[in-house]
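QA checklist item 7 of 12: single-chain prediction sanity check.
[x] sequence parsed
[x] length recorded as 497
[x] structure emitted
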Amino acid sequence: MSAKIKTKPTQPSKLLPDPSPAVAQHEEPQTPQSLLTRPLGLEGWAHLEAVVLAALASGDPLLLIGRHGTAKSFLLERLAESLGLVFRFYNASLVNYDDLVGIPVPDETQTSLRYISTPASIWDAEVVFIDEISRARPELQNKLFPIIHERRVQGILLEKLRYRWAAMNPPPDEEADDAPAYHGAEPLDPALADRFAFLIEVPGWDSLTDEARKAVLIDQFRGRHEFPVPVSDLVARTRRILEVFHQSPPEKLAEYLIALAPLAAKAGHELSTRRITTLLRSILAIQAARTVIAELSAQPRPGWEDAAWLAFRHGLPGIAHGVKTNHAALLASHRQAWNLCGLDASDPWRQILSVTDPVERLVVATRLGASIDPVDLASILTSAFAAQPDTARRRTLGLIAYLALRENHALPAIAVETLATEARAALQPARRNLTVHGPGLNACREVAGVCAGLSDSPKDKHCRNLLQSLLPDNLRGTKPSEVRDIFNTLWKKFDLR
């Protein structure tokens, strides 16, 4: 059962997402200069400025999600003030619908209603900010829906309304013991959440560096700050660039979004047709904003990939209604989609990257044979191993992959080391006398039962060796029968004989 595999040193391929947990540490591209937040004394927001500026330039609805005391309202109020717009603030947990529209009275014909405006009514508003939107009663959320979605009240167009902003605390998380309980706050209705183009999770105290925390503490004594560049100028410049982008958006963005949708779903975020079309607009707006910020910072023109990532990362409705978010998985999905859309149709990597499951991707790469460079095959292999949740599954994959690759590829050293580590125990079985009790004894009995049903074929001999190598402690959470079934499935997938 042994065979020599030639090796060569290499670096992992850049085409595949980094499977390690550290992938999320550098997920946000940094803005060259803070023009909107740090000048106001806000720390930790700099990487979000392009998204905020994109919302200002596009006019698409913006939702800020964060814990209490994270300056959500402060930022939005200062932006509206700097733009010189008529601003209406509503606390959704307290407001009544009549507070928005005024007092309804019959018109002169007695056939319809007209509204007597109050100083707080919405009719002359240019900016509407709905705070605590997740605390609104369901019937009020339904009435807020057309305001956010289409700038209408009772079917009447709000002609002056330019911006629709909202804020909320994070939706309840029953599994997080250390999360504050926001009593009365509910997950936002998914259809309402889907109407926000930009959904930004704002930074809290625990996400700041010590240096940033010191800056926040001292800044409270420095009085009012002003923006270094008028916000109206930033918005006007961004809009001019955005208009150019609208005329001829890069074709690659459409390919990226088509590739992204199934990958996002696998990461837990289903994207509606509306959301995918919204993401294209958001990418263009964010890239326009990043271009303006870079120009004012005397930095090189930014690339499109970071704009795509920011639009995706801050355009997920699920974060407003409680969908679990794995940032590393999101970033891996983005990178895979971006790499996929840049490949020629005949490139074998397009076929590989079209597969979302890491093990299935390894199967495809193995079948492609010599058309895949061993260096790239090593990256696919290590990614598949990194995705395995326990020793039993990892060793099963290691044994199968070794049997499939031992004669056909001059694998790099990193792949051989991975295979050797996982497959050695199953390839070199030894007679052992085990003294076990409790769960370990049950595992031994279950393995014995499964092995009794195996034949003397080469496949079943390998399976028997694999099962015995996992005793006594490496079957926790995985039954021997499950290991046998996984082994048989992979044996078939890899076309082993």
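[x] summary fact logged: The mean pLDDT is 85.
[ ] second reviewer sign-off
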